[in-house]
Structure formats: C-alpha cells, structure tokens
Design brief:
2 domains; Rossmann fold; eleven-stranded mixed sheet; 17 strands; alpha/beta
C-alpha cells in the first residue's frame, strides 16, 4: 500500500463543488462548445489558426519542426515518441493542432466567463483525440502487450467492464481497498463530545504537557469529509497543531439524505456556532480561533458577519484555507457560470432533495481531462494496471451529498457574487457584511489552484476589516492544505500587510523553506493566550465523551 501524496492534478475534482449538473457530459460540454464556437468565429480566429498550422505541418512532414510537448506532459514520456520518426511526427501534428485550438480560445475578444467555457470545451476536445488514448497510438501500451503476452489487454478489459458497471463509466482513479477510516486514516486520538442531527464535534487528545488557553475550531466544507486534514500519521494537520500545544476541535458534518433537503446556510451556520460554544465550554475559554476551509470558509464568514452584527466576541481570530469569498475572478469553475447550467443545477436540487457528490465530482473531473480522465484510461485499460493506492485519492473517493437548499444558496452566491455585496444575503437573521468583521485573519491560497485561484482567495484580505496575513503555497487546491513537514522541496511565500493588488504583494513576498503549517501555528499561538496544564481527560460534565474519534458521521456512505 502506497501512502505518499498523489499529484495535485489527481485529487482536485470533488472539492468544493459550488455548481453541478446531473449530466455534465451532455449539458456542461454542450454549453461549453457553444462558447468555443463563439470564440472561434470571433475575429476569424479559426481561420488564422488554420492558416498558421499549414507551414508548421510542412515543417513536421520534412522533419524540421521544433514542436515539443510541455514540460511534465507524461503522455509522451516513452522514448519512442522521440526516437521513431513516424511517432515523432504524429506527436508533433497533434501538439501543433492542439496549440492552434488553444490559440483560437486565447485570441478571442470575449468576456472571461465565455473564455473559460471555451477553454473547458477545448480541453476536452484536444485531450480526447490524443493518440496516446488509443492502443496503436501508444507505444508504451504496445510494448506492455508484448511483455505480458496479451495479459495487459485482458486486465484492461476487466477494468473497463468493472468501471462501466460500478463507476458510472469513468476510469477509476484509486484503489481504496487498503485505506480504512479510523484504522489508517483519521486516527489522531480524540473523542466525540457533541452530536446533533447536523454534525458531531470532535475534541482531540493533547500531546503536550501544556496547551494554550484558546482552542481552534475547524469548520470543513460540507461537500467533503473533514479528515483530509487528518489523513494519516505524520501527514495530519490536526496532529501537527496538537504537537504545538494548540487545543483542537473539529466539526464533522453528517452526510445528508433526501429528508435533509431543507438544510440551508442557516442550518450550517447555526451548527458551526454550536460547535464554537461546545469548544468554549469544554476548554473553559471565552472565545476561540476559527478555521474555515474551502466552502466551510463561506459558512465561517457568514457566522463571523452575524457575530459582528450582534457585537458578539465568541471568535477571537479566524483563518481561511483556499476559500473564495469573491467569485468575480477568472477561474475554471466559471465554465459552469451560465444561465442554462445554473438553472439545471437548481432543478436537480429541488427534485432530488440532495445533490449527490458523484455528479459534482464528475463535473470537476472533466476540468482536468488529461490528468483526471485519460491518464487513468491509459493506466487502467491500455496498460492493464491497477489504479494507484493514494491516501488523498481514497479520501477524495469517499464523497458526500449536498442538501438541495444549501446547494441552491451556493448557486445564488456563485451567480450573483453575493458575499461581496453588503446586505445582499441574510444568514441567521442578520445581513451579511464582511467589512464588519474586524478580527485578525489568516488567509491561504495555492499558486496552481484551478478551483479557487490564489488571487481570488487573496481578496478575502480586502473584504475583511481586521489585520490580515496572507500566505501563498506553490501548490494546488488540496496540496495547499495537506502540506506536512519533511519534504525538502516544500516552500511558501509570506509578505507584508496585503494591499489591493495581489500580484504586487506576490512580487514583494519572501520565499521560505518548509511548510506553512509552522507559520500558521506561530500565528495561532500568538493569539491563543497563555499556557495551562493539558486536561487529563476529554469532554466535560456538560459535554461528556460520546465515543472515540473519528466518530460515526464520517463513516456514513454517500
């Protein structure tokens, strides 16, 4: 069993699904193809690209072309693509054509949302026709057929039939059989100290003789299970925080069913407030430090706005992980920001009661087709290999549903960018106004994050009124959060007080070696009060231990 971290491209698709459709292959791609057509027709881009492709094709035929794959493109790693003249020309024709399609999209004078939808369609188009997706066009697969005496073809056919019957026709991304929640994932010692219909609250066992007075309460996204931050020993953010003497509580959301269709932002915000109160009572602290992750950061922000409106100081400081509060930024999710798709997503939410996570995951899988579809197509079917065994991929496959009402509200936020407009929405009876939140905040973003772009995450520092600290990781959506110590290549960027321009901040930022986890821990410790002896037992008289971590809700299947 392999537990090293998977490449970022392999783990992103199901994270923080704000918009989703029942049939992304039929609706999402169709909508994106319309955008691609608009881009192609605008300014005669297609004609220009076609004319430019002719001389390059001539150079390829004569063996004089310098067209080469991008660094890191693993599709053409086999030396045959370089050594064999026929395969080399096939590769170059494909790459030149793909570049021409991309130039059509990038050269179009259209708004960024239309361009993103066109990019989405172009990515599916160019990745799908790659020669490496076929047996004759994949020399590595042909070699494996010979090496295995045809066994790879038999294994590939078996994988294909199994995925067709049990995985919605998509190539399986992970062999999760060796990973068990509570056995080798989510194993940091702790206890459930509160449970209601919506969530459980977990308190973790201190690992230091003394702890800080003020605890951290982590609010994860409602579309994913919390344990990506407790993925395994040595790679657990929670374990790392405990080693620093930081008391740690976590909200573990229940996996909603159809009967929970009416759960809304109010439901989740009220549950988050309840978890904060549980942590306050158990720890004996008047206030806490909140940690909102991904879409959980949206819930956290609405809670903070509500508390600010009421003059309530239950949260002393807050940190946000890869959270978009301002949706008016170019992002790949903009490919789904159209009236047709949003209307279909709303209808599905209303009719089904919940939006199942597999539908959401499929949408985001097609955002990165080379890495998240065809990579596994080749591995599983053409090479006849088993899918990889990665802990993060196993977590990503452990999906949850989203209540219909909450999904509809997320769509409203997404379509109208409501979080940045004071009073445009109401949560817990108070208008949401992020500028009223004046507590210290710590914000992280990922430089290669295609779901929540870092400069969009950065916008939180401008929307909130408290003193801001921004930290930039060079990684993608999940790797930004799961960044354990020990990797000699790990680094992050920190800078001064964030100003209006994120790129100006980045230009002046300092690169530091190691993991931002340590930087975050220092930030928390500076705001978490004095040290005191670690409690001898978990829970309290009012909130006794109900069972061991990771609890029961995290074990509920989708």
């Amino acid at each position: 069993m392999v537990t090293r971290q998977a490449p970022e491209a392999d783990v992103a698709p199901a994270v923080d699904s704000i918009g989703g459709t029942e049939d992304p292959g039929r609706v999402g791609v169709g909508d994106a193809l319309v955008a691609l057509s608009k881009a192609a027709l605008h300014g005669r881009n297609a004609l220009k690209a076609g004319v430019g492709l002719i001389p390059e094709s001539v150079r390829i035929g004569l063996g004089r072309s310098s067209v080469a794959e991008a660094k890191g493109d693993r599709r053409f790693a086999d030396p045959t693509w370089t050594d064999n003249p026929g395969y080399r020309r096939l590769k170059q024709v494909y790459l030149a054509w793909s570049a021409a399609v991309d130039s059509v999209v990038e050269g179009a004078d259209v708004d960024w949302r239309t361009r993103d939808r066109a990019r989405f369609a172009a990515g599916i188009l160019t990745s799908s026709v790659a020669p490496t997706n076929t047996l004759p066009g994949n020399p590595a697969a042909l070699k494996r057929v010979i090496e295995t005496g045809g066994g790879s073809l038999v294994a590939g056919a078996r994988h294909f039939v199994d995925d067709l019957l049990h995985n919605g026709g998509m190539p399986r991304q992970v062999d999760a059989s060796g990973f068990k929640v509570g056995e080798n994932m989510a194993v940091t010692p702790g206890a459930v100290v509160y449970r209601d219909e919506v969530c459980e609250v977990l308190q973790y066992q201190p690992t230091t003789p003394k702890v800080r007075t003020r605890p951290v309460v982590m609010i994860p996204p409602p579309i994913n299970k919390y344990y990506f931050m407790d993925i395994g020993p040595g790679r657990s953010f929670i374990e790392h925080a405990l080693a620093k003497g930081i008391p740690f509580f976590v909200v573990s959301w229940r996996n909603p069913r159809k009967e929970h269709a009416a759960w809304s932002l109010d439901t989740y915000a009220e549950a988050a407030l309840g978890a904060i109160d549980v942590a306050r009572e158990v720890s004996g602290s008047d206030d806490v430090i909140a940690l909102g992750l991904c879409a959980g950061g949206i819930i956290t922000a609405t809670v903070l706005s509500h508390l600010a409106a009421r003059g309530d100081g239950r949260v002393h400081a807050v940190s946000f992980g890869v959270t978009l509060l301002d949706w008016d930024v170019p992002a790949m999710v903009g490919a789904f920001q159209s009236k047709g798709l949003l209307s279909i997503a709303r209808r599905k939410s209303r009719s089904a009661g919940v939006l199942d996570a597999r539908s959401l995951g499929t949408v985001f899988t097609w955002m990165r087709p080379n890495e998240l579809v065809w990579n596994y197509w080749v591995n599983n079917y053409l090479l006849g290999k088993d899918p990889p065994a990665f802990d993060i991929l196993a977590w990503n496959d452990d999906k949850t549903n989203l209540p219909g009402r909450l999904h509809g509200q997320f769509l409203d936020i997404f379509a109208g960018n409501l979080m940045v407009k004071p009073g445009a929405m109401t949560v817990l009876g108070t208008p949401v106004d992020l500028s009223a939140v004046k507590i210290d905040n710590y914000v992280t973003g990922g430089l290669s994050d295609h779901l929540t772009p870092w400069d969009g995450c950065y916008r939180a520092t401008q929307l909130l009124s408290g003193h801001s600290t921004f930290v930039l990781s060079p990684t993608g959506h999940i790797q930004t959060q799961v960044s354990p110590p020990g990797n000699p290549k790990s680094h992050y960027f920190v800078g001064g007080e964030p100003g209006p321009d994120p790129h100006q901040w980045r230009a002046a930022a300092e690169r530091r070696s190691g993991t931002w986890w340590d930087h975050w821990a220092d930030w928390v410790i500076a705001r978490s009060g004095d040290e005191k002896p670690a409690p001898a037992k978990l829970g309290s008289r009012r909130h006794p231990v109900l069972g061991p971590a990771p609890g029961t809700y995290v074990l509920e299947p989708a």
